[in-house]
Amino acid sequence: EQVELKPAGAFDFGQYMGERAQLVNKAMDEAVPQKYPDTLYESMRYSLLAGGKRVRPALCLAACELVGGDAKAAMPSACAMEMVHTMSLIHDDLPAMDNDDFRRGHPTNHKVFGDDIAILSGDALLTYAFEHIARATQGVSAERVLRVIIELGKAVGAEGLVAGQVVDIKSENQEVGLDVLRYIHLHKTAALLEASVVCGAICGGADDVTIEKLRKYALNIGLAFQVVDDILDVTATTEQLGKTAAKDLAVNKTTYPKLLGLEKSKQIAEDLIAEAIQQLDGFDTDKTAPLVALAKYIGYRQN
Ligand code: GRG
């Protein structure tokens, strides 16, 4: 799958992300080699190595480097973020959830391997993510590795992704307010972006004040990601399907544009990105380029 990322200013963001994706893909290929039982590992590797922008690993490595760490220290955490993200997509695509046939340009995991193996390979990726952090992280104190595991556990479980997905499912075909919409976005999307940045910073040796600044950066880009997604849903659907189909789709789902209108939603996305970038004040400007560019990419992407 082609990854299309626009360069932001002098810093070549497209090239940066391409290089990072290559490093992360190699590390994940080595972390999850093909072995017995064949079907299980084929299913895990099918989704893990199927493309994707690798935004979460990139955030994790960039945060580690921003606070003065070596990216190698955060690589197992970066891979773990993508393992969790991938398994959440495998489960999200199942007939019992979103029932999707395609993901990242390929047939979904359950379409190729069946629902049973898709559930189990998702479970295996989720548990292995934690094992991999504990086993493979080098040059980071045991106390910091423990903090990383706690951060990721919180982001994924009943206080994170799973909670967001439950509230999302229960809100389908219902009128919900901005508070519920914000809850869904914070838990389904922002939580794992937050864990990616915070865990990278912890591996890089950051102090608590720095970690909390970067947490705020990540929460803001996480929320912006979903607001922009909602905006693109309206604009892309209207363009691609025509107005009637767009309206049909829109009845099932509450979105920012539905609650606040397109213009106000765009303003909110812009404000969130500005507030995220503001958190990077005080760091070395030549070191903040990747996180600034990632925030701008999330805020101003066109698809
Ligand atoms: C996590 C234990 C556990 C269970 C899964 C199904 C579920 C619970 C949660 C759903 C989470 C979900 C699908 C959130 C949406 C995440 C999101 C923003 C996806 C798109 O991310 P991109 O654009 O995608 O980074 P690529 O393909 O580039 O990685």
From TrEMBL:
Pathway: Isoprenoid biosynthesis. Pfam families: polyprenyl_synt. Keywords: Isoprene biosynthesis, Magnesium, Metal-binding, Transferase. Gene3D superfamilies: Farnesyl Diphosphate Synthase. InterPro entries: GGPPSyn_CRT-like, Isoprenoid_synthase_dom_sf, Polyprenyl_synt, Polyprenyl_synt_CS, Prenyl_diphosphate_synthase. The keyword Transferase applies. GO terms for cellular component: cytoplasm. PROSITE patterns: POLYPRENYL_SYNTHASE_1, POLYPRENYL_SYNTHASE_2. Its cofactor is Mg(2+). One of its GO terms (molecular function) is prenyltransferase activity. One of its GO terms (biological process) is isoprenoid biosynthetic process. Belongs to the FPP/GGPP synthase family. PANTHER family: FARNESYL DIPHOSPHATE SYNTHASE. This is Geranylgeranyl pyrophosphate synthase, chloroplastic. It comes from Tetrabaena socialis. The lineage of its organism: Eukaryota, Viridiplantae, Chlorophyta, core chlorophytes, Chlorophyceae.
